[in-house]
Amino acid sequence: MRVVTIGHGDFEGWRLAARALAIADVPPAEISWQIGTTSSDLFVQPEPLPPASGAAFSVPRAFITLAQSVIGHSDPERFDLLYRLLVRLRHSPRAMEESDAVTQRLERFAREARRDTYAVGDNAQAAWDTLRSEAMNCTRCHLYKHATQTVFGEGPVDAKILFVGEQPGDQEDLAGRPFVGPAGQLFDRALAEAGVDRARTYVTNAVKHFKFEQRGQRRIHQKPDGPEIEACRWWVEQERMLIRPPLTIALGATAARSLFGKTVTITSMRGRPHDLEGGGEAWVTVHPSFLLRIPEEDRKQAEYTRFVQDLVRVKKRLAEIDA
Description:
single chain; 323 residues; alpha/beta; 2 domains; 5-stranded mixed sheet; 12 helices; 46% helix
């Protein structure tokens, strides 16, 4: 049994030790991870490592981001779980896309560690800047390979209303900002009619990279699938955890699936509040792009009016919460 002692929160110490052990092909079951009290306990072994039997390897940036958060958690099993995932990534670079028990538990540790950091931090804007910077290098799913850039959320970090859309479109992908294309312009008009100031809300998407099919010179929007939505839930959860809005509005079925972690229908959820894990209420309505796709002018206007009414309900609900 090899004993590795890591200082609490010492990501670099864990990284160096785990990498050396993985290259030496040391199985997870043969390692005892312990928390040390001094820096001198960083990497203690009763016997030297065997010669490395494998070559150096790289891991997705998403794993580094995950590990940096998880190391700050207090659960003693966090080191072992991270090492198990690291070993899998060495042989299967896409292992993080598999939502198994180990990955799910590590994701929960990371959320809880970040939540505690945000709770004691006195600079929410700095925390958001760091989160956005991390998201710019996101490789949690394959969509990053073809999109121009990550399109992160925007708005004040103390916003009381958080809107979640589906994914960036062509114009959002090029501009690097959410809701600036045709659907975003319609969204802005509806907000104005409902008396909601977009500048005081936070707007983001369930999926942060543009998914499309190339047709000649045009990039045609494609709906994100389940694994892509699940992979990107990490970022939406971090945004909600940092901003802590009393109201989160799902614009469309993809956004609702991201918030609730399962497929739901707009019809069954629309028009009433739903409790969210971690606090706050969720409201569900259509995505503005749905309105743009309606061919009949009279039906389009009726659905637009209903959309504005949904936004008015949100504004009234916030007034009740603030009262």
